[in-house]
Amino acid sequence: MPKRNLLILFVALVAGLLSWMARDHAGHGRRFAEVLTAIEQRYVQPVDRDELFAAAMNGVFATLDEHSGFLAGAAQDELNAVLDQEFGGVGLQLTVADGRIVVQAPIPQSPAWQAEITTGDMIEAVDGRPTAGLSLDDVVADLRGTPGTIVVVSVATPAADEVPTLDPAAAAAVPTTRRSVALTRERVALESVRGDRRLPDGSWNWWIEGEPGVALIRIMHFGEQTADEVRVVLEAVATRCAADGVRGVVIDLRGNGGGLLNAAVDVCDLFVDEGVIVSTRAADGELEPQPATAGRLLPDVPLVVLVDGLTASAAEIVAACLQDSGRATIVGSRSYGKGTVQSLLPLSDGSATLKLTTAEYLRPSLSPIHRDADDDDAATWGVRPLPDQEITPPRQQTEAVAAWRQARDAQVFADDRPSCCGSPTRAALQMPPIVTTPSAGKRPRDADAVLARGLDVLGK
Predict the structure, then answer these.
(1) 397 and which of 31, 93, 120, 393 could share a cystine (Cβ 3.0–4.6 Å)?
(2) pTM (2 d.p.)
(3) Does residue 430 have a pLDDT over 50?
């Protein structure tokens, strides 16, 4: 498992704890074993010892804070996949439409992408097991597996004259073509950074449609590769034709629940080259500042950062750093207020991982990000835009924007970037073609009021 770049505690600590429980014949360890044994031997129905242990651990962590936990099985695997930004699978992003499992988008370069499984296709069976009646999580679990193994996917493609829909309220397209595809699972990389429009070669067009010279960087979560992904985008922005110029960059952190602490620090370091990015405060009160290093990118390009009530943890570190340093204008609504550090401690046998709160992090100004249970709106916590940049759309409007963005992400657009900002074509990559679709629906400014406010800031 790659390093988590959080406040690292040694696995030996956990091993020592378990050893203490096993050998503490006069204390809690002995009593815990005695309780498990009594339940196993005397309970009216058979019980599983592993399930009892997991239940006991969940009870222990329930007495701590909401961000600590005992992760085993699928929960542990999913956390590893998100933080590592890779998993063993075929590379399909799926959703549910009208009760069917529908392809939202294939991950570029993945086995599904190479097999020309595309947006709107329906997954009807996996290894002969029908998906009808299964949850999305069940289908995803069936598709994932050890790299090198083969999975057979039954795919239904809608008729050419039907418009595929990802809207559960709309009628599903009528499938006219069915095929079985044998896919070899690979290590599939998860992108944590997205732009405005997907291009035929699988990459992103970072330039916002209808907004010349303005780039959009949507950071979905903070994983092992996030800082490198952002750096690539910034370098692409920097190479834009001098005649066109760059008016600004919008960094969208809405809905970003966080991730790796050091990933957030590394992203901030791309934009600032002096001062403190964030400080962590351990249980003993000792502060550990994370200083910026020289070499920021796009120093003269204006930045806007979009936040909302779901912007949390590592995402709040980035927003707070860029706000306190004066590097960016914050637009949107007050962030969530999650300012604690969780250390990931795998058990010695690899069967589970402890996610344990071990420290708190503070803004460069040393103001708290974390919102305590008794904090009200007047207290200091989270990241808040200035009054004239604060906008909180009603829930219905927010849901409409999310649906619009999901549909837009599922489309593939023709490459209309300046020639100097191009990338290798799909043909050059010796990949099968993907049919592009014209821009449908509203443009970003018209569809997204928060983004529109950010664009107005850049226009001043």
Answers:
(1) 393
(2) 0.74
(3) no
